[in-house]
Amino acid sequence: MDTSASKSTHRNWLICLLMPLVLTMAGCNINVIDLTPSTMKANPSNVYTITAQIKVKNSSVIKESLRPQIVIDGKIHPMSLTPGSTSLFEYDFRMPSGRSEAAFYMLVHYDLKTENGATTKEIVTELNRFSIENRYTVELEVNRAPVGTRVAVLGRGFTQTDKILVGDTPAATRFDSSTSLSFYVPSLPEGRGYAVKVMGISGEIIAGTLRIDSSRVSVRLQPSTIAQGQSSLLVFTIPEEAPPGGLSIDVHTDIPDSVIMDFVRIEAGQRSTSVPVQGASPGSGSLFITIPGYSEVVVPITVN
Question: What is the DSSP letter of 191?
């Protein structure tokens, strides 16, 4: 039997058995936690902060000796201690033009006290990645508004083909710039919150929630008492300009045989309209004016 070969095999087996334990013990001195988000929002500076927290777990570690570095694009850069912190380290990486992602890992050198003085140790983290999001919304200009109000959506990466939905209802959308869109609150039932979504060729983005508040339409009928065959003018006024596409007004009555009138609509950009109401069969009742997003208005009418 080859004793030398037997001893060599035994030694190699023992090294393989103990190696994970050695690595674990080396990693027990400090703990490196990568705090860098996997996705970051694009910014005009094109600079993105990579952050790590280093926790010392062994009292033999000389804290002042911590020397964290980041390896990115094949280059090694020192990481700096975050102002006001004792355990957070960061590095500002300038993303090369035309790129939207990067991969990196960290090296941490430190000194460990020993019986003979000190020895230098090193920790190497796993490879991590982050990407840049070039299209996103930051916020709605407001979170509540009445029908017809123009509301801005702030963000980045907007295009002229983007459209906004309030709930499932398309809203008249205006492209202001790559960082701003605006829309007119569509005529929807008031007192509810609606998800605001930006729809484009790159997909859907949730911009936030908008609550549609009740607004009141002013209605005036002069005179309110008319004779058969005569007419009176019904005037509607709203506090905000009608959104693009106009505003349809639903008018119904409890004396349909007594009232003759046309369909009513406030045109886009207008705040008022009027329609003649003609008397038919004698009767006394009311006109009920309903516009989604506006409080219902009841107007008495009598036909002699």
Answer: S
